[in-house]
Amino acid sequence: MRQFPSLAMEVEGVDKIRQDFPILQRQINQKPLVYLDNAATSQKPTLVLQVLDDYYRCHNANVHRGVHTLSEEATASYEHARLRIARFINAASYKEVIFTRGTTESINLVAHTWGRTNLRPGDEVLITAMEHHSNIVPWQILQAQLGFTLRHISVTPDGLLDLSELDSLLTERTKLLSLVHVSNVLGTINPVPELVAAARRVGAIVLVDGAQSVPHMPVDVQALDVDFLAFSSHKLCGPTGVGVLYGKRALLEEMPPFLGGGDMIREVKLSGSQWNTLPYKFEAGTPAIAQAIGMGAAVDYLTAIGMDWVHEHEQQLTRYAYERLGQIAGLRMLGPGPEARGGLIAFTLGDIHPHDLSAALDHEGIAIRAGHHCAQPVHDHFGVVASARASFYLYNTPDEIDQLVVGLEKARKLLAF
Ligand code: 7TS
Q: pLDDT tens digits, residue range 315-331?
């Protein structure tokens, strides 16, 4: 097996980190790429690219089935990735880490298995008004079939969860509280420990959508005491097509399987089947093997940098961006001040359509996201159809924020007032 260059444990600064990401050398429209669309997907370091390449060149085989060297190597790498990811979120056991296609599939898995078994008319599922569609629609689909009640915690004008009505929303009828850790539009970091404590008092379980938190800050499932945590590889420097559902072992043991097929069974007879043990019970068919191994490498990379460092770096960038963007006439930021938010800022600029803004910035080599970011209800709440969003990661710099500000000023003069 080829050896990969070991990661420098000492972070000598963002310049060094930037060298790990080949795509950051690209020119877009004859300008150096300024990549500020990390909430949609992050870029990938050389380490992850090398691991993917090495897997396909040297070890490719199916997992958990072949009694031959390649299959054993592939299985060992796949399971080793699971172990490192379990450690990354401090799961009590690798059995609690299920590979899925990503956050969306993880939430759907819980809806289809735990939800279908445990929810009936009269029960309530509580979400929030700042959810990504992937934590709204699965519950709406299930609600139509099972007839439980879906309620939501509202959002204050500051972009925080309105906890003033929590006592009437979270009651003995509530079976599940399913909420986003960090909003992909408002950036709000929600008070998960406080909400878990409130849910415990009424006997509800808690699912946390960690799509925008796990890549950006230390997340410890045991310290948070969440029942389920969903997150995606592609937002944390890993490949697309894979993600994780963390679940507490006792809950996962009780849940029926999600998809049926190979690998998730212990024994199949034409008269009936028995399910495999955890985590395989929830992994039917050939999994995204290379991607899961790549995700393991991404987690190694982030661990070597240090998640505290990543979070602090983004906090500094966000404080700076908040101040700089606030100086642009007509620019309205959605969500709370920098002290309560993660590394992203969604905004509108006068009457300029966010798509036009994004296209104008692209001329300058700057990538942001424009649209409703798969979170229409929270945009409705703030009376806008769409927003532009700049989102940061470990390789972004204050200089890139300056370039964003210059680009926005230019766009403002070009497109409107
Ligand atoms: N939850 C949150 C909070 C998200 O931000 C996203 C993706 C998802 C769930 C779904 O993740 P997936 O990997 O299953 O697609 N958010 C975004 C975004 O803000 N722009 O593009 C994707």
A: 999 999 999 999 999 99
Annotated catalytic residue 58: no
Relative to beta strand 34-35, strand 366-367 is parallel
Partnered with residue 206 across adjacent β-strands are 177
**Protein residues with CB under 6 Å of any ligand 1 atom:** 39-40, 102-104, 132, 134, 180, 184, 209, 211-212, 232, 369, 373-374
Q: What is the pTM of this model?
A: 0.96
pLDDT over threshold 60, residue 2 = no
Q: Report the separation in Å between the CA atom of 231 and the middle of ligand 1, taken as the mean of its atom positions.
A: 9
Q: Would you list the domain boundaries of the chain?
A: 11-32+307-415, 49-303
Domain 11-32+307-415 and domain 49-303, same fold? Reply is no
Half-sphere exposure of 259 (CA within 13 A, CB side): 17
- Report the 10 Å Cβ neighbour count for 15: 9
Measured between its terminal Cα atoms, the distance across the chain in Å is: 60
- Give the residues across from 371 on adjacent strands: 387
Catalytic entry in 7, 49, 251, 374: 374
**Placement of tokens 């966000």 in the chain:** 318
DSSP secondary structure letters along 381-410: HTT-S-EEEEE--TT--HHHHHHHHHHHHH
Say whether domain 49-303 belongs to CATH 1.10.10.10. no
Residues 196-212 have pLDDT tens digits of: 999 999 999 999 999 99
- 10 Å CB burial of residue 68 (0-12, 13-18, 19+) is exposed
Rounded (to 5) percent helix, strand, coil in the chain:
45, 20, 40
CATH (residue range 11-32+307-415): 3.90.1150.10
Q: Are 190 and 183 in contact (CB under 8 A)?
A: yes
- Residue 361 is classified by DSSP as H
Give the residue from 125, 126, 183 showing the smallest Cα distance to 153.
Answer: 126
